[in-house]
Amino acid sequence: MINDNLAPIVLFTYNRPWHTMQTVEALKKNELASESELFIFSDGWKSEQDKPKVLEVREYLKTIDGFKKVTIIERDKNWGLAANIIDGVTKIVNEYGKIIVLEDDLVTSPYFLRFMNEALEKYKDINKVFGVTGYAFPINKNGLPSVYFLRMSGCWSWATWDRAWKYYEKNTNKLINTFTKEMIYKFNMDGSMDFWSQVVANQKGKINTWAIFWGATIFLRDGLFLHPRDAFAINIGHDGSGVHCGKSNFYDTKLSCDYNIEWPEKIEELALARQKHIEYFNSLKLPLWKRVVNKLIRAIGRIQ
Hints:
Layout: E1 9-13, H1 17-28, E2 37-42, H2 51-61, E3 69-74, H3 81-96, E4 98-103, E5 106-108, H4 112-122, E6 129-133, E7 147-150, E8 158-161, H5 162-165, H6 172-178, H7 181-187, H8 196-203, H9 211-220, E9 224-228, E10 233-235, H10 271-283, H11 288-303
Parallel strand pairs: 1-2, 1-4, 2-3, 6-9
Antiparallel strand pairs: 4-8, 5-10, 6-8, 7-9
Helix pairs in contact: 1-2, 6-8
């Protein structure tokens, strides 16, 4: 990897000073942080109630160091998360050709930037690969390689190229008219999740999100996303503080303390990884007591 050709990091913030600080301080500990450019898009406040926290975030942003260069873009009005991300990603990736994207509730391991940059370099010319994520669901990892491809994107820390992002389209009516029942079933990881309901909710105006359309774009083009077995990023936003995240511990996982990556040479979805994700997503539908029992069984298995 050529260190003078590192991808720019783009961070999106709003009104969570503590979360933002955790995200930035962890990022600064990355071995490539001092050689990387950081762009921060600070969204404007939606209401007077949000204004003090937004201003508090912006004061903190002005103190950030430890990177090659820090550029802060303060929105003069509230764009909303979806529009802020779509616009920011489009501008930066079109200028630099590649990008690493974070939101203000993602804590990274010291190996995160290395992993993302190496993946961006390795698969830059393979059109079927649409990106890479640093997050890993807390699935059963037995038998899985260190990284693998899935026909499923990841939005809790991700990276991509301009060649892939150019296909991004947020068009609910077009998707609804294009997807068949069979396609929806596959898109929903064989019915184990209900990703599709987000598309419908966007169409009805109940939510306004961006990530589901990135996933749909990749799915329609039979694209692949690279996923790590062990997480290089975790989400700390499921505490009720996020725009679209309620309180939950279903997605809690641990950061990887090691870096031993064997890159897959076959550019295809790993069936075993897909099946393990489906099993995990299905487990979330179980009653609470069954989820607790299953979690204890997995924990005992790890101890033994």
